[in-house]
Amino acid sequence: MDSNATLITDEVVISKIYIIRNTKVMLDKDLAELYQVTTGNLNKSVNRNKSRFPEDFMFQLYEEEFKNLIFQFGISSWGGTRKLPYAFTEQGVAMLSGVLRSERAIQVNIRIMRIFTRIKHILNNHSELNLEIEKIKKKVNNHDKNLEIVFKYLEELIGKHSDQNQFPEIGFKVGKV
């Protein structure tokens, strides 16, 4: 196992995962950095094996997406990028392990795949939690409606009771002759 690959923290990998076109992706530049190869060499390896990377595994960013990405970083750390970057989905990153055959690439890929799996698990748990919260909200809304009805009936009862006090008292009047 490449000891340098173990130096890559989960936080470093997670910071290089973006949501583009509603998909979790990693950019060629970031993957090249993790694999310790040049972006050009990574893309050459991919181009030599183009049939392994259909559109749902890898796609090239549109200029507007790329500008938006640079804007999110505040300043461009992209250097002299001449071509729009490629974005690799989880499946595309997995496919890279078959294209880049170094021991480091294998270990980095394993780490990335584990992180993608962990993110999926967290998102699934989050979705389940949201469903439970919605169920509780519905119950609370029903309770609110039921309490509203109870208070309405109580007000009617109090109103009826106060109306009864407006009638004259029945019985003997003491002190008058």
How are the SSEs ordered, and which strands pair?
Layout: H1 3-6, H2 10-14, E1 17-20, E2 23-27, H3 28-35, H4 39-48, E3 58-60, H5 63-73, E4 86-89, H6 90-99, H7 103-164
Antiparallel strand pairs: 1-2, 2-4, 3-4
Helix pairs in contact: 3-4, 6-7
What does the model show?
- The chain is an alpha+beta fold and 177 residues long.
- The chain contains seven helices and four strands, in the order ααββααβαβαα.
- The protein has helices at residues 3-6, 10-14, 28-35, 39-48, 63-73, 90-99, 103-164, and strands spanning 17-20, 23-27, 58-60, 86-89.
- The protein has a four-stranded antiparallel sheet with strand order 1-2-4-3.
- α6 runs antiparallel to α7.
- The longest helix has 62 residues, at 103-164.
- The protein is rod-shaped, with a radius of gyration of 33 Å.
List keywords for this structure.
177 residues, rod-shaped, single chain, four-stranded antiparallel β-sheet, 7 helices, 4 strands, alpha+beta
Major sheet: 4 strands, antiparallel
Number of strands: 4
Shape: rod-shaped
Order of helices and strands: HHEEHHEHEHH
Strand content of the residues, in percent?
A: 5-15%
Oligomer: single chain
Catalogue the unreliable spans: none
